[in-house]
Design brief:
With 254 residues, the chain is mostly helical. Strand 4 and strand 5 form a beta hairpin. The chain has a domain of 76 residues: Orthogonal Bundle (Arc Repressor Mutant, subunit A). 42% of the residues lie in helices and 10% in strands.
Length: 254
């Protein structure tokens, strides 16, 4: 198709969520996987070459148009999103599910050392986790996993893009080294860290508040589930990274 790129671009522009190849093939039946992927690659190259204000991102198993981080300040003036934050308890639970899925509630609580029922309910309401089913053991407990929205919010193509434990440890060691006096000649920027910092700038989505704000940290929906003295009593101040799309994203499960 001569105008395949234009058709795909129009679909991406109006879509509320990432579009995967299979869905695009149903919409444009006269095309195949190779043609769609090639057209998407050409579009991405064109956006980068012409330095447009948006780019084509592969996220959550599909394709999505996103604005570049350089224009976040101006978009925030228009959209005025609420600060996106997660309590430490919610972050812990979400991280455990992301790395251990499929996982049972008992496994999560064994790792955290506290009851996590309230936090699990909160994450489900935010569409960041889902129930896969029940494990066929006594009591038939629920099995939890992350959703496609989780991938989209954190800008991940799939779960393979999650940082490895070794990468996380290296980030911590690099921060420790940065606090120590260093010789001026040796203090050269680490390219991998610079690349990672640039990547985190890509996460500018989610104009809606998908995560509770610090002033709501006493919300019984979260803190009541954790015993006194647990990590749920502390809130993380850092904003959750995200990309602004051309449209506000609805909360959809995976």
């Amino acid at each position: 198709m001569d105008d395949l790129k234009n058709i795909l671009e129009s679909l991406l522009f109006v879509a509320d969520e990432p579009l995967n190849v299979e869905r695009l093939k149903k919409i444009i039946p006269q095309t195949d996987t190779r043609q769609i992927r090639q057209a998407m690659s050409d579009l991405a190259s064109e956006y980068d070459t012409h330095k447009t204000s948006f780019y084509l991102s592969e996220v959550a198993g599909g394709y999505q148009l996103r604005t570049r981080p350089a224009y976040t300040e101006w978009i925030r003036r228009l959209v005025q999103p609420k600060p996106a934050r997660l309590s430490r308890a919610a972050l812990e639970t979400l991280a455990i599910i992301a790395y251990k899925q499929p996982v049972l509630r008992s496994d999560i609580e064994h790792i955290r050392g506290v009851d996590s029922g309230g936090v699990l309910r909160l994450l489900m309401e935010r569409k960041l986790i889902r129930i896969l089913g029940r494990k066929e053991i006594p009591g038939r407990p629920l099995i939890y996993a992350t959703t496609k929205l989780f991938l989209e919010v954190f800008g991940l193509k799939d779960l393979k893009e999650l940082p490895t434990p070794q990468e996380i440890e290296s980030l911590g060691s690099d921060e420790d080294e940065a606090t120590e006096p260093q010789d001026t000649e040796k203090a050269q920027p680490d390219e991998s860290m610079a690349s990672r910092s640039a990547d985190t700038g890509d996460f500018q989505l989610a104009p809606e508040s998908i995560i509770e704000s610090p002033e709501n940290k006493n919300d019984p929906q979260d803190s009541s589930a954790d015993s006194p003295g647990s990590l749920a009593e502390k809130d993380l101040d850092a904003d959750i990274p995200g990309d602004y799309k051309n449209k506000e994203h609805p909360e959809t499960g995976g």
